[in-house]
Amino acid sequence: MTEALTRPIAELAVLMGEGEIKARTLAEEAIANHDRCGEKLMAYSQWAPDHARKCADAADAAFAVGARAGSLQGIPTSIKDLFAVSGFPTYAGSPKRLPAKFEVDGPVVASLRRQLGTVMGKTHMVEFAFGGTGHNAHYGAPRNPWDAKLHRSPGGSSSGAGVSICEGSALLAFGSDTAASVRLPASMTGNAGLKFTKDRWSSEGIVPLSFTFDTPGIMARSMADAAFSFAALDPQLGDGFDFMRRVPSGVQGLRIGLADSWFWDGCENGIAKVVKQALDSLASAGAMVREKSLPEAAEAFAVFAEGGVSGIEFRAFLDRELPDWLATIDPVNAPAVNGAANIPAREYLTRLMRLADAEKRAVARFDDVDVIATPTVMLTPHVMTEEQGPEKFWARNRGIVHNLVPGNFLRLCAATLPVGLDRLGMPVGLQLIAKGGDDEKLVAIACAVEGVLGTPRERLGTPPMCKA
Question: Under CATH, which number does the domain 4-466 receive?
Answer without folding.
Answer: 3.90.1300.10
